[in-house]
C-alpha cells in the first residue's frame, strides 16, 4: 500500500534492477516508404527519425484495410515514430493527395486501392517565449524529461496565462527555437488531456512540435513527462492512448466513500451550465458528448473521524477533470475544489462537529487557506521510448497538501483493512 509517512523526497528508480528491465520492442509499422529524403539510402541501420521534414510516402492502401479508414490515421500507421498531429499538419498544408487529387481534410476516408502520396511538412518553430523559470526536474536524459509540477503552474500558455507556464520554462531549459505564440481555444484548467484526440500534440498549442504529452490542471501538483524529440513524443502518446502508462494520484476528499475501494465507470462530458466544468453522466457514452471514463480508487486513510479521507486514484482512462468529476459524482468532492463542490463551507460543516470548539478557529484558518483542489500526481511509470526500459518515479505532495493532511491526522486517523 502506498504510504506517505516514510516518503521524504522525490524518488526515481530508472537504474534499479527491480524497476528497470528491457522490454521487447514492438514490430515496425512501416512496410513501404518509397522516398525518405532525410535518410541516406546506404544506411544499413536506421535510427528513429528526429525530424520528418521531407519524408515522402507513396503507397496504395492495402486491400485488407477496413472499409472506413481515416487518412491521417492510415498515414501515421505507415511512418514509424511520427505524430498524428504532424501528419494532420501536412494534410492541412495541401501536401497529401489521394488518387491524384489534393485532400486537405484530415478525417477523409480512404479505401482499399486508393493511391496516397504524402510529403511531410517542415517542422514549425515553437510559438511561445522561453523563460528562466526554476523547474523541479526529477529525471532527464537525451529523450525525456520528468518534472514535478507545482500547484498553480499552468502547463500551456493560454489566454490569461501567456507567461510563467511549464512550457515557457521547458523552452528555456531545452533551448528550443521559438516564435510568436498563437492562441487557440483551450481549457486552461484542464487536468489530464490524454483522451484519444485530446492528447497534447505539441509544446506550443498550435504548432506541431514534440513536447508535452499530457497535462495536469493548474491546481494539480505532481509528476508529468515531457518528450524531447518527435519519436519519443509519438511513442509516449501511444502508451497514454493504450493506457499502459502507470499513473497514481492521491487526494484529500470532503467526506469518505461509502465503499473503501472500488471502480467508478461513469461517462464524463461537458457541463452545459458551466463550460470549464465537466460532469459525470450516468448511462451510455454513445449518446451526446459524454465519453467513457473509468477510475479505480482506494481509501488509504479515514481522516478527522470521517470528515475527510486520503484516497488513491488509478486512471483507466484520461478524461478531462476525470478524478474531480468522479469524486463529485461519488459525493466526496476534493477538498478545496470550489468548482466541483469541495467548498470551504462544506469542509467546515463536516469537520467542525468532529472537533473541539476550542479548535474551530484554527480549523477555519487552514481551511480558508485552501486555494486549490487537494490533488497530487504521486507516481508515474512508463516504457522509455528509445531503450524499452521501464521507468518508475514517485514524489510526495507539496507542503500545502502535506500540512492539511497533518492537521486532519491530528483530529483522527484510521487505516481501512483490505482483504489480501
TrEMBL record:
Reactions that this protein is recorded to catalyse: a uridine in RNA = a pseudouridine in RNA
Similarity remark: Belongs to the pseudouridine synthase RluA family.
Keywords, ordered alphabetically: Isomerase, RNA-binding
The UniProt record lists the keyword DNA damage: no
Domain RNA-binding S4: from-to ranges: 69-134
EC identifiers of the protein: 5.4.99.-
A single GO molecular function term of this UniProt record: RNA binding
Active site, renumbered: 217
PANTHER family per UniProt: MITOCHONDRIAL RNA PSEUDOURIDINE SYNTHASE, RNA PSEUDOURIDYLATE SYNTHASE DOMAIN-CONTAINING PROTEIN 1
Keyword RNA-binding on entry: yes
Described function: Responsible for synthesis of pseudouridine from uracil.
Name by which UniProt lists this protein: Pseudouridine synthase
One Pfam family linked to the record: PseudoU_synth_2
Gene Ontology BP annotations: enzyme-directed rRNA pseudouridine synthesis
Amino acid at each position: 500500500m502506498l504510504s506517505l509517512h516514510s516518503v521524504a523526497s522525490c524518488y526515481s528508480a530508472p537504474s534499479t534492477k527491480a524497476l528497470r528491465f528491457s522490454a521487447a520492442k514492438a514490430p515496425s509499422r512501416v512496410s513501404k516508404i518509397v522516398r525518405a529524403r532525410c535518410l541516406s539510402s546506404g544506411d544499413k541501420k536506421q535510427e528513429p527519425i528526429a525530424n520528418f521534414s521531407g519524408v515522402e510516402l507513396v503507397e496504395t492502401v492495402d486491400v485488407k484495410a477496413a472499409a472506413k479508414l481515416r487518412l491521417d490515421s492510415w498515414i501515421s500507421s505507415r511512418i514509424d515514430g511520427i505524430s498524428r498531429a504532424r501528419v494532420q499538419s501536412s494534410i492541412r498544408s495541401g501536401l497529401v493527395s489521394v488518387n491524384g487529387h489534393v485532400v486537405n481534410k484530415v478525417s477523409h476516408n480512404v479505401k482499399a486501392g486508393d493511391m496516397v502520396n504524402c510529403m511531410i511538412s517542415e517542422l514549425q518553430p515553437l510559438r511561445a517565449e522561453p523563460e528562466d523559470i526554476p523547474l523541479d526536474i526529477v529525471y532527464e536524459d537525451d529523450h525525456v524529461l520528468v518534472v514535478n509540477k507545482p500547484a498553480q503552474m499552468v502547463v500551456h500558455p493560454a489566454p490569461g496565462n501567456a507567461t510563467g507556464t511549464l512550457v515557457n520554462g521547458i523552452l528555456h531549459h531545452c533551448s528550443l527555437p521559438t516564435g510568436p505564440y498563437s492562441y487557440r481555444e483551450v481549457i486552461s484548467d484542464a487536468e489530464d488531456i490524454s483522451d484519444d484526440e485530446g492528447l497534447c500534440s505539441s509544446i506550443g498549442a498550435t504548432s506541431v512540435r514534440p513536447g508535452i504529452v499530457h497535462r495536469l490542471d493548474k491546481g494539480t501538483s505532481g509528476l508529468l513527462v515531457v518528450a524531447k524529440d518527435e519519436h519519443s513524443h509519438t511513442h509516449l502518446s501511444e502508451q497514454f492512448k493504450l493506457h499502459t502508462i502507470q499513473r497514481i494520484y492521491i487526494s484529500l476528499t470532503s467526506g469518505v466513500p461509502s465503499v473503501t475501494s472500488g471502480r467508478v465507470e461513469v461517462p464524463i462530458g461537458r457541463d452545459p451550465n458551466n463550460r470549464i466544468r465537466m460532469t459525470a453522466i450516468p448511462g451510455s457514452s454513445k449518446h451526446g458528448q459524454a465519453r467513457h471514463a473509468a477510475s479505480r480508487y482506494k481509501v488509504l486513510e479515514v481522516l478527522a473521524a470521517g470528515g475527510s479521507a486520503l484516497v488513491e486514484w488509478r486512471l483507466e482512462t484520461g478524461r478531462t477533470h476525470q478524478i474531480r468529476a468522479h469524486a463529485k459524482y461519488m459525493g466526496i468532492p476534493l477538498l478545496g475544489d470550489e468548482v466541483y463542490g469541495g467548498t470551504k463551507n462544506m469542509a467546515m460543516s463536516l469537520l467542525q462537529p468532529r472537533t473541539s470548539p476550542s479548535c474551530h478557529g484554527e480549523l477555519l484558518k487552514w481551511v480558508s487557506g485552501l486555494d486549490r483542489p487537494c490533488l497530487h500526481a504521486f507516481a508515474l511509470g512508463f516504457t522509455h521510448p528509445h531503450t524499452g526500459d521501464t521507468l518508475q518515479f514517485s514524489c510526495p505532495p507539496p507542503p500545502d497538501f502535506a500540512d492539511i493532511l497533518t492537521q486532519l491526522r491530528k483530529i483522527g486517523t484510521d487505516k481501512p483493512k483490505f482483504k489480501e
